[in-house]
């Protein structure tokens, strides 16, 4: 039996109530201040992961800091908390630990954490990229878009996930705009894409302007606030929101029946899996970053796999092949924590055509 662990943390204060219901009655600042002092703990046992080749079990371990605390507290303090969580994973018997949500963003994106643990570490970002790109492409085709003609916008393009998403999509489209805060990393990435693919991409820090011309948006920023509102998108736009917390405002779902927003990186896990914890998904479904940790465990590949901010296309292909081998697959489409049917997508497409969408 292969063994793994995955570190989670509350994205928002209200997420603490998933495990501790009484906290919903307390002021948010009280919950944050108290849980900042709480040591990492095991949240649940993960059982029943099974493929024709292997079996695995594991644990969810929590680092009790919210997304805002991960960003706002001193980096040294946050890293120490994450390392403590990894040490707990070691004690439980895990041979590899995955870094969930903002635990994979802090500091040097996993390297310092890996150096301080005696087990392998992965951010899960390689499989996240693979599923995000595949999901965005599938959704665009369902909306009638021709990938060779669309304009793709990548938000958070210079992050570890954004860079590889940009590289992979650049080989299949004619128009692309990269969006990030800092100009120099954007220029470097644009030069790299031009050299490797021959595509000349646009760069900007103006999110709103970029979104106005986007047929496909891949959102992978580390913002703790939503940055895409209902007024930002053209009819027929497809948004693959990989970020947690999400980059797309829930108002988009309420006010725009002509755009398709899908959650990136949601996969179905093989076997009779039970996570014994509610993180908002139906049975057997998990984030791709979680799935990467499971895949590496099932393969017995106990080595640090996705670390840092320079993932390679070769890594994406390798983890995709292992996922296929062990029976992990995209879990259809989900939008704002619920499944979205083919019928609903057809209705969105029809609404978009009625509002002036020109299929490209």
TrEMBL record:
Domain Quinate/shikimate 5-dehydrogenase/glutamyl-tRNA reductase: 140-253
Keyword Transport: no
Pfam families linked: Shikimate_DH
One GO MF term attached to the UniProt entry: transaminase activity
Keywords: Aminotransferase, Transferase
Matching InterPro entries: NAD(P)-bd_dom_sf (IPR036291), Shikm_DH/Glu-tRNA_Rdtase (IPR006151)
Protein name per Swiss-Prot or TrEMBL: Acetylornithine aminotransferase
């Amino acid at each position: 039996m292969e063994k793994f662990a995955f570190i989670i943390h509350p994205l928002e204060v209200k997420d603490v109530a998933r495990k501790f219901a009484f906290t919903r009655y307390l002021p948010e600042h009280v919950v944050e201040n108290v849980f900042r002092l709480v040591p990492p703990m095991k949240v649940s046992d993960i059982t029943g992961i099974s493929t024709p080749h292997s079996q695995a079990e594991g644990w969810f371990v929590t680092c009790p800091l919210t997304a805002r605390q991960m960003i706002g507290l001193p980096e040294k303090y946050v890293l120490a908390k994450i390392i403590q969580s990894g040490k707990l994973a070691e004690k439980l018997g895990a041979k590899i630990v995955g870094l969930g949500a903002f635990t994979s963003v802090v500091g040097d994106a996993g390297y310092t954490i890996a150096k301080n643990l005696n087990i392998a570490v992965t951010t899960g970002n390689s499989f996240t990229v693979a599923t995000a790109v595949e999901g965005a492409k599938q959704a665009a085709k369902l909306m009638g878009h021709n990938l060779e003609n669309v304009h793709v916008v990548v938000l958070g393009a210079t992050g570890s996930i954004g860079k590889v998403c940009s590289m992979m999509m650049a080989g299949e489209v004619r128009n692309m705009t990269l969006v990030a805060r800092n100009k120099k990393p954007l220029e470097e990435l644009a030069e790299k894409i031009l050299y490797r693919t021959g595509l000349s991409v646009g760069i900007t820090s103006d999110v709103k302007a970029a979104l106005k011309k986007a047929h496909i948006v891949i959102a992978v920023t580390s913002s703790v606030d939503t940055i895409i509102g209902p007024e930002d998108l053209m009819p027929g736009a497809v948004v693959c929101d990989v970020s947690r917390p999400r980059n797309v405002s829930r108002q988009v779902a309420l006010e725009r029946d002509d755009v398709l927003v899908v959650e990136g990186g949601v996969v179905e896990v093989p076997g009779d899996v039970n996570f014994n914890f509610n993180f908002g998904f139906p049975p057997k479904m998990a984030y791709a970053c979680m799935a990467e940790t499971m895949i590496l465990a099932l393969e017995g590949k106990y080595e640090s796999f996705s670390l840092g901010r320079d993932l390679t296309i070769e890594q994406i292909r390798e983890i995709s092949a292992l996922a296929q081998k062990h029976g992990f697959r995209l879990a259809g489409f989900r939008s704002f924590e619920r499944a979205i049917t083919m019928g609903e997508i057809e209705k969105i497409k029809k609404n978009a055509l009625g509002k002036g969408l020109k299929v490209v």
